[in-house]
Structures are given as C-alpha cells and as structure tokens.
Amino acid sequence: MFKEFDATKKKIFRVMDDDGHIISDKHMPLIEENQLIDAYHNMVFARTADHMIISYQRQGRIYTYPPNYGQEAIHGATAMVMRPDDWLVPAFREMGAWLAKGATLKDIFLYFMGYEVGNTWPAANHFLPISVPIASQLPHAAGIGYAIKYKKLDEVVFAFVGDGGTSEGDFHEALNFAAVWKVPVVFIVQNNQFAISVPFRMQTASAGIAIKSVAYGMPGIQVDGNDFFAMLKTLQEASAYCREGNGPVLIEAVTYRKGAHTTSDDPTKYRSKEEEETWEKKDPLKRLKNYLDSKNLLDETEDRRLEEQYRLEIDRIFVEAENQPASPLEDVFKYMYADMPDDLKKQQVEHENFLQWKESNS
Amino acid sequence: MSMKIMNMVNAINSALDIKLAEDPDIVVYGEDVGVEGGVFRVTEGLQLKYGAERVFDSPLAESAIAGTAIGMAAAGLRPVIEMQFCGFVYPAFNQIISHLARMRNRSRGRIEMPVVVRIPYGGGINALEHHSESMEALYAQIPGLKVVIPSTPADAKGLLISAIESNDPILFMEPKRIYRAIKQEVGEEKFSIPIGKAKIITPGTDVTVVAYGAMVREVQKALPKLKEAGISVELIDLRTIYPMDKETLAQSIRKTGRLVFVAEEPTSFGVGAEIIAMANEEAFLYLQAPPKRVTAFDTIVPLPKGEHHYIISPEKIFYEIQKTVKF
C-alpha cells in the first residue's frame, strides 16, 4: 500500500467519500462489525466530552483546553490499532488516543484543571505525558524506538505532532534518527490546516508533509484523516511494517481543526465561513455515521439514549474531578528528584514556617 | 584495590567500561563516540568491546541526541550521551530544560531520567571559537538537574560512576584542559564518590578558597607562594555544582572568615554569586572581608591569541587571595 500511495505520487489515500460511500473496496480494513460500532461510539463519547469541556471552560470551571473537534477519526483509528504494550507519545490534541491508552476522563479533567496528577494515568502503561512544547516529543519517540529494538520487544511507538510542528528542527532530527536507526515509530502528523492562526501554506513550501518521508528514507503516506477507514487501514499497515523491523513510517493525516486552537483563541479572525463550511461536509463522524446507517448498523433511539448517558456520565466525572482537594505543598517538591537536594527540603520547611506564622497571625 | 596511573581520559573510560560491563541497560552514544572513540578519545575501545548497539555514533544533531536519550530512559535504558564540546550543547537546551529536567516531576515520579550528559568544557587548550566556554551556571539554575565537575582523574571516575548510577539526570562537565595534564594512581576496580559532597583538599585557617574543575590545579600552583607569604589557605574542591555542599563551605567560611571563589565562568550571575549569597546567609557574622570572585570577564572567550588575557592564572589567584586576606 505504501508503494501504491507513494508520497511522491501526490495521491491522497481515501477509502470512503465525503458521504460515507466506500470508494475502494480493496483497501477496506478488516474490522468486526461490533468493533466498528464500538469505535464509532468511542468517537461520539470523545466528541461529547470535548464539547462539554469547552462549556466548562466558558463557565470558568477548567483552564485552557485544546479542542479535538473534527479530528476524532485519527484518534479513533489509533485506538483500534495501538496494542496495550505499544507506546503513545502524545502532543496535546489526540484525546481519543489517550483514552484508548488508559487515561480516564477524570485524569484528563484533572490535568486541564491544573493538577499534575492528571498526567499520570494510573491505569495506563507505556506512554509519555502530554507534551506542550512543539515537536520536542518526537526525538523521545525515536529514543523509545531504539530501546524497543535494543531489547528486542514486540512494540511500536505512536507519536503525534501537528502540521506546525513539522517546521521545528526536532521534527527533522527525530525522523532522521528514527530512519537511520530503523526503529519502530509511526509518526502521525495531524495536518489540521492551522498552527494556531497560521495556515498550512505558510508553514512549508513542500507539496505536503508525507513527501518529506522520501528524503528521510522511510515510507510516507498522505491520508484523508477524516476517513476512519483510510486511517485505520494506514495505521494497521504502518504498525505491521514497524513490527516487522522495517523502521519508521510517516503518516500525514489531512484533517481540519473545527474548533479553536485552544479555548483562548478565536478562529473567526483567521479563517472564513466558506472554508469552515467546505470542511463541515467532510466531518469524520458524519461520514462514518452515514456509512453505518447505509448498513443499518445504528439504532437512532439507542444512539440518542447513549449520548444522553454519556453526557450524564461525563458530568458526573467532571464534578468528581472538581472535588479533588488542592495539591499539597509537598507535591511541589517531592517529585523533582529521586534524591532530593537539601536546598529543596529547606525551601519547603521555610515556606511551611511562613504558613504557620500566617495561620497563627490571622 | 589494584592501582594504575591514569589521566582523566583513561579514568572516565574506565568508569564507562566498568558500568557497561555491569549493566546491559547502559548505552553510550554521541557524535564520533563509536568508531573514533570520541574527539578526545574518552570512549576509545568501548565499541570494540561492547558492540555498536551499545556504543555508537549518532547523526550530528545535539537536540535529538538529548531527546532520544530521554525516550530511551523512559523505556528503561540508562543512556550516557556525549556533547562534543560545551559550545555545541545549545541546540539541545530545549530538550534539557523542557523535558530532561522536568520529566520526573511532570510524571509525578512515574518516569525517571537516569541520563548522564557528558560535556567537555572550559578554556586553555587553544581551541576554535565555541569550544572553550564554562557555562555551568546555566545548567545549575535549571530545576531538576544536577551538575557535576571533577578536578582529578580519580574524582572523574568515582563521580561518573555515581552519576551513571543516579536516577536523576546529571550534566557531567569535564574540564578538557586537564584531560591529559594530570596523571595519578587510580583504582582499577569500581569505586564511587558521592554527588553533592565537596572535598577539602588542603585545610587552612586564613581564607576559604572554593574552586572546581581545572581551576583546582591553578589554585594549587599558587599555594606554595601563599604559604611563603604566611597565608594559610583552606582549599575546597566543590566537585558538585548543584546540589551544592553548603554545609562544608559554610563551616569553612565560619572558621576562616574569608571567601575567595575561583572559576572559569563569566563573573556575573554565576556559581560564584550563589556561593557568596550562601556565605551571607550561612556565615554573615563571621565574614572579615568581602567575598571575592576570581572569575572570567563577562566577555566572549577570546580566540587563542587573546585567551591569555582571559584565563585565570596562578599569579592572579595569588594576587586576589592576598588582597582579601589583607583587607
């Protein structure tokens, strides 16, 4: 498949059209009906949570949050392919993949409410914390890949970055190292057309991102990131390619960030209504729903009931997270070092003395 | 323990050799580290002995050298990476400050970073531009890191073994000026020297002189003349920049009442400023003279034909110490 959709041919890989009709039967990924319905529901769950977080943010109940709206197929497909021992190296906009890795919604709420503990995902293994600096997580993925190869483990790394991140030096360095070392990393670029306000055409003069793989000596493919089946097929092939010891793969998932970069920006300032409407027609959930409807796999009443259930569940978890006690002072210090320097101990004690003084004088 | 005459290059090589033999999770890499054994030959022979999977040349990119080490550590390895020269670390700065130093805290202790970043640093070898800097204070201020600088072959070996065994990320800065200049008997087997502990090299009563790296030897060169002048110097080798052994330093300053700090770093906002702040906090009423920094100018390190102006000489050290004592 990587030969057929060789990045130099500038063909975007699609399995279904914008209306959810299958246009390439031979590339239809293998997936059980019930798995497919589950995947759809998981994506609906993630989207519902995403929307609700934005309204919580507007109510002042959670801090800055980067919405996933419109990119759920990429995450949903990753969730299907990523095995429990595979590694997830996140950026910060792939919530469906976090949930699949084992993050709970409560973890995610806590993180964006300002608790470091929200980054620990106790139920998950083999992942790095959310990475806010751009693209600097990618060399970590290459390093994890090296460790997997060195220890001869059957594991693959799924590493995320956005289109803006591909302009960073670390994107280049990570892909180069991974290819030279021939390590099992699937680099997933979510090309959602914007780096905050800067459009993709201002990031690079290259004919897309996938084509950059050629220079690194690894397969690269440009995929319709709003086509769940195309994403699933690509990720299945890419992880199999990695598992066989062939080295890394670069996936450019072409999508559209329907929401804002984070809750702090206003997309109406830098893009047009027309553009948003064009992409609205390609919405990943709508397309998958059309497909499922055409196969009579969905039950409208049941789905409405499920969505209502999701809302209640999400709200219940949110309130639970809101009841998290404030972080104690010692938490600021105790994770800094395995072997804590005396300076830190002293700073903590001095501050505790101040707090005691404050309390006795109030 | 059987002893062998070693210079610092041999001693560091010996530490790496011992740890590579002992722990299969250790990998050693960087630019020219494998086949050539490093531009200073510190890793010479190790690839032959342990194979190219464990001791190897990476592509030329410092950010990814540091960044991949972070990934390796997260996945259970214990990388020891080399930054070829101190002036070439800066592309890796984001990885060091944004990830290496914070991963443990960010993951609430779930992911530790047993990474050693070896950096040959300092002047005095007639090197090209960007090869002679002494920017340890930059790293010492980053929360989450530890910064270690040896001054002798034996210290280099014992401290590096501790650094490799530490679960905290450590910047191990090697004074390249004395890579081969000092030879001494060093134990051939494994031994370690604790991180965070300074060493009193010569006890004295008139003035506490704090130095580290190549400057320890320069102070030692000034000692006979100081003795002749009737000045009793307590020379302390800091060994670890952060965490600083404030207890040993403060105790000494309370005894002597005077402090002179000698280092290759630029004068302002440096390790010296921290030590003087500590002297004020811990020994304020004992001070009999203003603490003095004998450090480099706040300038770019001059190229070799001008470097003699910049380098700290034993004469300058003598001059400043006797001035402080006579204050």
Question: What this model shows, in words?
Answer:
The complex is a heterodimer of chains A (362) and B (327). By secondary structure, chain A is an alpha/beta fold. Chain A folds into 2 domains: 7-322, Rossmann fold, CATH 3.40.50; 329-360. Chain A is built from 13 helices and 7 strands. In chain A, the strands form 2 sheets. A 5-stranded parallel β-sheet of chain A has the order 1-2-3-7-6. In chain A, strands 4-5 form a two-stranded antiparallel sheet. The relative contact order of chain A is 0.16. The longest helix of chain B is centred in the N-terminal third of the chain and has 15 residues, at 8-22. Chain B folds into 2 domains: 3-187, Rossmann fold (3-Layer(aba) Sandwich), CATH 3.40.50; 199-326, 3-Layer(aba) Sandwich (Rossmann fold), CATH 3.40.50.920. Chain B has 327 residues and is α/β, with parallel strands linked by helices. Classes of the chains: A alpha/beta (362), B alpha/beta (327). At the A-B interface, helix 5 and helix 6 of A face helix 3, helix 4 and helix 5 of B.
Topology:
The complex is a heterodimer of chains A (362) and B (327).
Chain A: H1 33-58, H2 72-81, E1 87-89, H3 95-101, H4 105-113, H5 138-150, E2 157-162, H6 169-181, E3 185-191, E4 194-195, E5 198-199, H7 212-216, E6 220-224, H8 228-243, E7 249-254, H9 273-280, H10 284-294, H11 300-322, H12 329-334, H13 342-360
Parallel strand pairs in A: 1-2, 2-3, 3-7, 6-7
Antiparallel strand pairs in A: 4-5
Helix pairs in contact in A: 1-2, 1-10, 1-11, 2-3, 2-8, 4-11, 5-6
Chain B: E1 3-6, H1 8-22, E2 26-30, H2 46-50, E3 55-57, H3 62-74, E4 78-82, H4 93-100, H5 103-106, E5 116-121, H6 136-140, E6 146-148, H7 153-165, E7 170-175, E8 184-187, E9 199-202, E10 207-211, H8 215-228, E11 233-237, E12 240-242, H9 246-256, E13 259-266, H10 271-283, E14 292-296, H11 304-310, H12 314-326
Parallel strand pairs in B: 2-3, 2-4, 4-5, 5-7, 6-7, 10-11, 10-13, 13-14
Antiparallel strand pairs in B: 1-8, 6-12, 9-11
Helix pairs in contact in B: 1-7, 3-4, 8-12, 9-10
